[in-house]
Write a structure and sequence with these properties.
Blueprint lengths: L13 H9 L10 H13 L10 E7 L14 H11 L4 H9 L2 E8 L10 E3 L17 H20 L4 E7 L4 H12 L15 H21 L9 H11 L2 H15 L3 E4 L2 H13 L7 E3 L8 H7 L16 H5 L1 H13 L3 H4 L6
Parallel strand pairs: 1-2, 1-4, 2-3, 4-5, 5-6
Helix pairs in contact: 1-2, 2-13, 5-9, 6-8, 6-10, 9-10, 10-11
């Protein structure tokens, strides 16, 4: 995996940003999270007059070997069927991209189906799904590097279009399982507290999922020659590679390259939050560029957000994936930008500043 040079935004401008926001003709702090968002966007773009340009949404598809263990109520065929549905404009992601003016790119990095005849899907297939991490690593080092490289390439494509804000989604049946394990291992949270219903498991299904993932983690820990609780980059990569999906690792690559460019990264629900958590364990500065769209309805998502000390914009009880929750938050992000650019200040409006 290439090294990424992700710099913290220069702090020199922060006081000027806060002064501008505080002097808009409103009570100090009265626009709440809009003010917090505006400050973050100004800091990332290093300007007092931020802009949102050519928003892009990348949706990665991939299948998971662990799906064979019955950890999801949905069969893996749903992955490729939905990928085709997206090309016909019929998915939730399509609707929200149209509504908010996002350019949608659909990328196959590991779907267990031949989609090569569909020219609306970017073919970057690494394999027909990952291996079953109950028995072996989901991917080898070469596959891991390829997935990161796909993510890097897609971020570069968006940059070339003039994009400065990027959103990422996923389609991969059973990908709540690796996300739960990443949360457990990166956050030192009991595994049972990281596991939810996914796409709709009943109580027995959740119990079975917990048992499968517990065995997988136990086997992984037994195989390690070093203590993976020590968060070196090599250990983090080992955890990501052993359990992750191709679509998840590609998302990590996009997050890292996009933030290296200084782009804003919109983060969706449980899966994409797990990807951002993994990315932040490799390069902590990535979090300075992230905007978390919503808190999903998957068990443990709020706690995962707390691990990163972040606050989501929305809480709509969603758990669809695809990036839909983050896309729904975009008008709020736009409002934050309009606030800092278009609201008058006390001096220009000839209003007495009363604080």
């Amino acid at each position: 995996m290439k090294d990424f040079n992700i710099r913290k935004p220069d702090e020199k401008l922060r006081n000027s940003i806060r002064t501008k926001i505080d002097n808009l003709n409103k009570p100090k702090g009265s626009l709440g999270m809009l003010e917090t968002l505006a400050e973050r966007i100004c800091m990332v773009q290093q300007t007092l007059t931020p802009q949102l340009k050519c928003p892009c949404h990348i949706l990665y598809g991939g299948d998971h070997g662990i799906e064979r263990e019955g950890v999801s109520v949905s069969p893996r065929d749903v992955t490729w069927q939905q990928m085709k549905n997206f090309t016909n404009g019929g998915g939730g992601v399509n609707m929200f991209c149209r509504q908010h003016g996002f350019k949608l790119s659909i990328v196959d990095v590991g779907v267990d189906h031949d989609l090569s005849d569909n020219t609306d899907i970017i073919n970057r297939k690494i394999a027909h799904g990952t291996k079953n991490f109950l028995y072996e690593a989901a991917m080898n080092e070469e596959e891991f590097d390829k997935a990161i490289s796909v993510g890097v390439e897609m971020a570069e494509r968006c940059k070339d279009k003039g994009c400065n804000i990027i959103c990422i989604g996923e389609m991969g049946i059973a990908n709540t399982s690796p996300s739960s394990i990443w949360m457990h291992l990166f956050g030192n949270i009991p595994l049972d507290e990281c596991i939810g219903i996914g796409s709709g498991l009943n109580d027995d299904g959740v119990t079975h999922k917990r048992e499968v993932l517990r065995k997988a983690v136990e086997k992984f820990n037994e195989q390690q020659t070093t203590d993976c609780r020590q968060r070196t980059k090599d250990n983090v990569k080992t955890i990501i590679r052993h359990f992750g999906g191709f679509e998840m690792v590609a998302a990590v690559g996009t997050m890292l390259r996009a933030t290296e460019f200084g782009m804003l990264v919109m983060v969706d629900g449980f899966i994409m939050s797990a990807c951002m958590l993994a990315a932040s364990r490799l390069f902590p500065n990535v979090l300075d560029y992230a905007i978390f769209g919503h808190c999903g309805n998957e068990s443990g998502h709020r706690r995962m957000l707390e691990l990163m000390n972040v606050r989501p914009i929305l809480n709509l009880g969603m758990r669809l994936g695809e990036g839909t929750g983050a896309l729904c938050s975009y008008p709020i992000i736009e409002s934050a930008v309009k606030m800092v650019n278009e609201m008058n200040n006390f001096d220009n409006a000839h209003i007495t500043k009363y604080f």
